TrEMBL record, chain A:
Chain ranges of the Bardet-Biedl syndrome 1 N-terminal domain: 18-271
GO MF, one example: patched binding
Family annotation (Pfam families): BBS1, GAE_BBS1
Keywords assigned: Acetylation, Cell membrane, Cell projection, Cilium, Cilium biogenesis/degradation, Cytoplasm, Cytoskeleton, Membrane, Olfaction, Protein transport, Sensory transduction, Transport, Vision
Gene Ontology biological-process entries: non-motile cilium assembly; protein localization to cilium; protein transport; retina homeostasis; sensory perception of smell; visual perception
Name assigned to this protein: BBSome complex member BBS1
UniProt xrefs under PANTHER family: BARDET-BIEDL SYNDROME 1 PROTEIN
Protein localization: Cell projection, Cilium membrane; Cytoplasm, Cytoskeleton, Microtubule organizing center, Centrosome, Centriolar satellite
SUPFAM superfamilies in UniProt: Quinoprotein alcohol dehydrogenase-like (SSF50998)
Automatic annotation (TrEMBL), chain B:
Domain of life: Eukaryota
Principal localisation: membrane
Family (UniProt): Belongs to the BBS4 family.
Bilayer-crossing regions: none
Protein name per the record: BBSome complex member BBS4
Low complexity: bias regions: 444-458
Record keywords, A-Z: Cell membrane, Cell projection, Cilium, Cytoplasm, Cytoskeleton, Membrane, Repeat, TPR repeat
């Protein structure tokens, strides 16, 4: 409603705000905002786009580097990239940033696009009991079945979960166990977790080109800060749930703040000097995007909402979105002092929010899955987006573009000015109204008169039916019966089935008979009169008989069925069966 | 589960190679990717990844099974999702999350008792979970165990002051007919809930004030709520009907236009729009809208009542008779309906039935002056002065009790005028409240909302009919407020 015209206006304005620099719908990029970065990889002052491509999701994972409109280089990754950051790890000249790609339990560090270092997450603590059991198995003190029982006991009680090996072992069929134990028993047991998100934190200076630490979140809910040169763990913190989005600000040596959105739908804020979360924001739905804007945190939720919080977890505002959020990114133009949040939506739009106000909308040809804004090549205001279908979009912000910061809820909604759809009345209606006004009394009387007549006619018909037992339901209290009749066959012989049911609660009915009345010139029946057995209440009694049609003129008649009680002449029930025309004879 | 019996993963194929044990893949390695697609609502991709992951881990990946179950539940396959959640609970018996989801699925399947059991089990694993206590409370409501429900909801409130819990608790009290406790709940909800959840806060406040009967305050808050969420249908309907009560038809219509855009097929909305037109004396439009409302909800007696009323105004007495008798069939114990029917019958020259209808109305009525006044006028016109006087005195009695107990000290000026005329004709009514000097002027000041009275007419039924209508319009509107504001 209100957004319709607003959108139209916005797109026309927005199209003048951005230059379409490049669009490749078949760039074959499957990636997320966490896996793309803009970085001056060669120290030549030109920023390249680095993207961790998930390939097919199973194989063909690549680290791709774009420059201008073309692919500069491509190197194979061993596993799915979870996150990727570009960071300066030392003070050596030239100051070329390194690329850290997190995948599985490892971080692969690339310098000059060459593999440089591989960091492995420390193993998790292994259950000592599990260790014991396996060492016993190693010395062949216990057979695989005992091992299985003991491990099962451990799984159900232990505080520390079992290792992958034990879990896998428990899944095996008995005949496979022996081999599995032989194969694995020599190896030490390890429990490994994986990285789920990665970020950077300046070590001790706030400069743009200061050395940064890596901050990683893991599947089991830990957050590590790594030394930039030695890749040792400087600091470890733990969360109640698995982190999935992360924002880091501050300097490691001074004061820092890590905002982490977790899988349980909460956002935790970690600070220096406390290994546990300092603040917690409970969201009503899962966070999909997390962006820090100045001192506030903007969260996009899966319930099509955008919330603003202070860094202490106090809620500031909520904006409602027209479609689910797919990704979010910060748009920062320090030269102009402009900051906004870019929100990719599932309806092929990218909305730009300043606080709770929508300042601009960009239409995209496909659903955007990742957004990155920054310096690309030598252009400061470049917006890079990748789409669900694998496309790559590059737009450049016009230098003349101005974003008005207006309140998004100005005055009454537009629907207020839409005319109400009141049904029109015809001339005929008006005429009838006038007629009614003049003759209301006569109309009313006529109506009442006819109504009374109708009621009378209905009552008469009803009484007549009752009197002559024409109804298919018996009205008598002693023999409450129900009957229906079915005619089968094409003729000349028909099968007539009468379904009789005693509807009394518990009393059986006896001494009933059935007789038929029909035109003997037209039909003949083998038995036109027979007795009915005792009728048990509730059961359905189908009674079959055969009728022969004698005429070949294609005419039909009514057969009347009477249910009689012995010693009474008035029937209990009457049914009129409209016989079909005999088609069999007509064919002959 | 199907995935359990799939072929062994690639790692096992390498087995013949001696000594060097293969690296077993980490079960959780793709959890992040599953989660990422799940929260982006990209369920198709998500399902593909889950399938892959379950194949690789032979159904051991707890999170993959968990998300698969969540997606299935979203797709309406509740029974299947329940089974998957149960297998999650076997994979990780220590997680209260899995049990919570099992219970949730049971709840959705309508097995409230079983859900309560599982929630209790989950509560044993995680004592301080707001969600468990709240959902337990909701389950207890469905099993009609209000005491336990109240207990659990209060427990939930101790853990976390969530809006939903307040709403549920208020609902329990209302269900039990304990208005005072409900007021307390809404009051504390207004105090505790963070100021940022304005819509909720307003809902609570409105309910709270409406329960107290402070309509003016409730109206102010409705207005506030509308500034934050101008498209909220319920708030529009409630605010609009309040405006209508005050005769602010144009503003109310503006609001209704917004509502009609978002919910074009709401019977109460079209009823209210119809009565707005009626208030603006656009009778044909009123009939159109009311007929649409009646079409959308044929068994709503309020709409039929209003249709009857509008047709009476249009002097279409025969049609009015039909609508009113339909309304009476749906709601046989309302005196105003019988009164209107009597008015229609009077105009249809059916004095006997009109009298019977009036008698029924008087018998059912408790406090409405109009019933007696209209009956008195009718009797007077029929020439039965004695009976008319009786009805007039009955009306006087009602007026006096109302004034004495301060329920109502301002009367509709048209009613007053009529009563005075009738009083003069019957030589009665000197001791009436409004006949005392000084009060009269006060009561006539408040004529803004009611329709300007038509030109002086001799004592006749038409005048009394006008009375009946204005009150009926007001009545139906006030009924609408409660209907609209219910959460």
């Amino acid at each position: 409603m209100s957004s319709v015209s607003q959108e139209l206006k916005d797109t026309s304005v927005a199209s003048s705000k951005w230059l379409d620099a490049h669009y490749d719908p078949v760039a074959n990029l499957y990636t997320f905002s966490s896996c793309i970065a803009l970085s001056d990889l060669h120290g030549d002052g030109e920023n390249k786009l680095v993207a961790g491509d998930l390939g097919t999701g199973v194989c063909n994972m690549k680290l791709k580097v774009y420059h201008g409109t073309g692919l500069l280089s491509e190197s194979t990754l061993l596993d799915l990239p979870t996150g990727m950051v570009s960071f300066l790890m030392d003070l050596h000249e030239p100051r070329t940033p390194a690329i850290a790609v997190a995948s599985g339990p490892f971080i692969y560090v690339y310098k000059n696009l060459r593999p440089y270092f591989k960091f492995t997450l420390p193993s998790l603590e292994v259950n000592p009991l599990e260790q014991d059991v396996w060492s016993q198995a190693k010395e062949d003190m216990i057979d695989p079945m005992t091992l299985k029982e003991m491990l099962e006991g451990l799984r159900d009680k232990a505080e520390i979960p079992l290792s992958v090996r034990s879990l896998r072992f428990l899944m095996l069929e008995p005949q496979e166990m022996e081999d599995f134990v032989l194969l694995h028993k020599e190896q030490p047991i390890r429990r490994q977790t994986v990285i789920t998100c990665i970020g950077t934190l300046k070590k001790n200076m706030a400069d743009e080109d200061a050395v940064s630490c890596l901050v990683i979140g893991t599947e089991n809910g830990d957050v590590y800060i790594l030394d930039p040169e030695a890749f040792t763990i400087l600091y470890k913190m733990s969360l109640p749930s698995t982190p999935n989005l992360m924002d880091v600000t501050g300097q490691f040596d001074v004061e820092f703040r890590i905002t982490v959105a977790c899988r349980n739908g909460n956002i935790y804020i970690l600070r220096r000097d406390s290994p546990k979360p300092k603040y917690c924001i409970e969201l009503s739905s899962h966070p999909v995007g997390l962006v820090r804007m100045g001192k506030n945190v903007v969260v996009g939720c899966s319930h099509e909402t955008l919330h603003g919080y202070t860094q202490k977890g106090k809620k500031l505002w909520t904006a409602y979105l027209p479609a689910p959020v797919t990704t979010m990114a910060l748009m920062d133009l320090p030269t102009r002092g402009f900051q906004a949040v870019l929100v990719g939506l599932a309806n092929c739009e990218v909305h730009m929010y300043r606080d709770k106000n929508l300042v601009s909308t960009i239409k995209t040809p496909d659903v955007v899955t990742s957004i990155c804004f920054g310096r690309y090549g030598r252009e400061d205001g470049t917006l890079i987006m990748t789409t669900k279908g694998g496309g790559l979009i590059v737009k450049i912000l016009k230098r003349t573009a101005v974003f008005e910061d207006r309140d998004s809820a100005p005055g009454p909604p537009i629907a207020q000015s839409i005319r109400l759809n009141v049904p029109k009345k015809t001339k005929l209606y008006v005429d009838q109204t006038l007629r009614e006004r003049e003759n209301a009394v006569a109309m009313h009387r006529a109506f009442q008169m006819d109504l009374s007549r109708l009621r009378l006619a209905a009552a008469r018909a009803y009484v007549k039916a009752l009197e002559s037992s024409l109804t298919p339901m018996s009205a008598s209290l002693t023999e409450p019966l129900k009957m229906n009749a079915v005619v089968q066959g094409l003729g000349p012989s028909f099968k007539l089935t009468l379904n009789i049911q005693n509807t009394a609660a518990c009393r059986p009915v006896m001494n009933l008979a059935i007789s038929f009345l029909y035109d003997e010139n037209l039909y003949s029946m083998r038995t036109a009169f027979f007795k009915i057995p005792l009728l048990v209440p509730g059961l359905n009694y189908p009674i079959d008989t055969f009728v022969e049609c004698l005429s070949d003129k294609g005419i039909s008649d009514i057969i009347k069925v009477f249910v009689l009680r012995e010693g009474k002449s008035a029937p209990l029930l009457t049914a009129h069966i409209n016989m079909p025309v005999s088609e069999g004879l007509a064919l002959n | 589960m199907k995935t359990d019996v799939q072929l062994p993963a690639a790692t096992d194929l390498k087995k013949p190679r001696p000594k060097k044990a293969p690296e077993l893949p980490i079960l959780e390695r793709r959890n992040w990717l599953i989660h990422l697609h799940y929260i982006r609502k990209d369920y198709e991709t998500c399902k593909a990844i889950i399938k892959e992951q379950l194949h690789e881990t032979q159904g051991m990946c707890e999170y993959a099974v968990y998300v698969q179950a969540l997606i299935m539940r979203l797709e309406g396959k509740i029974q299947q999702s329940l089974e998957l959640f149960q297998s999650c609970a076997i994979l990780n018996p220590k997680s209260s999350d899995n049990l919570k989801q099992v219970a949730r699925s049971l709840f959705l399947l309508g097995k409230h008792k079983a859900a309560i059991e599982v929630y209790n089990e989950a509560a044993r694993l995680n004592q301080k979970d707001w969600e468990i206590s709240h959902n337990l409370g909701v389950c207890y409501i469905y099993t009609k165990d209000f005491r336990s429900a109240e207990e659990q909801l209060n427990l939930a409130l101790q853990l976390n002051k969530h809006d939903l819990t307040y709403m549920m608790l208020g609902k329990i009290h209302l269900l039990q007919g304990d208005t005072e406790k409900a007021i307390d709940v809404y009051k504390s909800a207004v105090e505790y809930v963070s100021i940022h959840n304005l819509t909720f806060k307003h809902t609570c406040f409105i309910l709270y004030t409406m329960l107290l009967g402070k309509y003016q305050k409730a109206f102010e808050h409705l207005g506030n709520a509308l500034t934050y969420d101008p498209n909220n249908f319920k708030a529009i309907l409630a605010a609009g009907s309040m405006m209508q009560t005050h005769g602010d038809y144009d503003v109310a219509m503006n609001k209704y236009r917004v509502a009609a855009y978002s919910v074009p097929e709401s019977p109460p909305l079209w009823n209210n729009i119809g009565m707005c037109f009626f208030g603006k004396k656009k009778y044909v439009a009123a009939i159109s809208c009311l007929k649409r409302a009646n079409y959308l909800s044929p068994f709503d007696w309020k709409i039929l009542y209003n249709l009857g009323l509008v047709h009476l105004t249009m002097q279409q007495y025969a049609s009015a008779f039909h609508f009113l008798s339909a309304a009476i069939n749906l709601r046989p114990r309302m005196s105003e309906l019988y009164m209107l029917l009597a008015v229609a019958l009077t105009n249809l020259d059916d004095a006997d039935n009109a009298r019977r209808s009036y008698e029924q109305a008087v018998q059912l009525d408790e406090s409405n002056l109009l019933v007696n006044l209209n009956f008195a006028v009718f009797l007077y016109n029929q020439g039965d002065k004695k009976a008319a006087l009786l009805q007039f005195q009955e009306m006087e009695r009602k007026v006096n009790t109302q004034v004495d107990s301060n329920i109502n000290t301002e009367f509709d000026p048209e009613l007053v005028e009529m009563a005075q005329k009738l009083g003069a004709a019957l030589q009665a009514g000197e001791n009436l409240y409004w006949s005392k000097p000084g009060k009269d002027s006060k009561s006539s000041q408040r004529s803004s909302s009611s329709k300007p009275s038509s030109s002086q007419q001799p004592l006749g039924t038409n005048q009394a009919l006008g009375q009946a209508m204005s009150s009926a319009a007001g009545y139906s509107k006030s009924m609408q407020i409660t209907a609209g504001a219910e959460p």
